[in-house]
Amino acid sequence: MITASQLRTGMAIKYEGQQYKVLVADYHPGQGKMGGATHVRLQNLSTATFWEHSFRSDLKLEEIAVDRHTLVEGRPVHVLFPEFVQVSVADTAPPIHQQDSALKPARLENGANIMVPLFIKTGDVVRVDLQAMKYMDRVKTDR
């Protein structure tokens, strides 16, 4: 059993006899005597319908164990990918070294296109947030 405040994206839970996959979970702490609330977007695993709801933060929910490839009652539920990946930049414009927060497009070795800072050059290894598909930082490599 977990509390609603511990819900995270990708978890699977059982609530009122139904199994759900947590698509979005945002915890909002309460103020003073007011308890917090967790706003969630759930997908029913039986009907594939979506449901948005707010749970009291202290509500107990039954968690369903999720592995990298999860089957619940024989049905695929979730494939858990890493949060970040390190990928080499296959193609981008030449680097510009200036104190600016501007971005330029870059194509990665896996074919994905993201925006990167101006100082990144072709061949650099970058860390990418898979949820947002955004550049996080440049990976230091031994050359």
Could you provide a short overview of the structure?
The chain is mainly β. Helix content is 0%, strand content 53%. The protein is built from no helices and 13 strands.
Write a structural description:
With 143 residues, the chain is an all-beta fold. The protein folds into two domains: 2-79, SH3 type barrels, CATH 2.30.30; 84-138, Nucleic acid-binding proteins (OB fold (Dihydrolipoamide Acetyltransferase, E2P), Beta Barrel), CATH 2.40.50.140. 0% of the residues lie in helices and 53% in strands. The chain has no helices and 13 strands. The chain has strands at 2-3, 12-15, 18-28, 37-44, 50-56, 60-64, 69-72, 75-79, 84-92, 103-108, 113-117, 125-129, 134-138. The strands form three sheets. Strands 1-6-2-3-4-5 form a six-stranded antiparallel sheet, with no helix packed on it. A five-stranded antiparallel sheet has the order 11-10-9-12-13, with no helix packed on it. Strand 4 and strand 5 form a beta hairpin. The radius of gyration is 20 Å and the shape is elongated. It starts with a strand and ends in a 5-residue tail after the last strand. The mean pLDDT is 84.
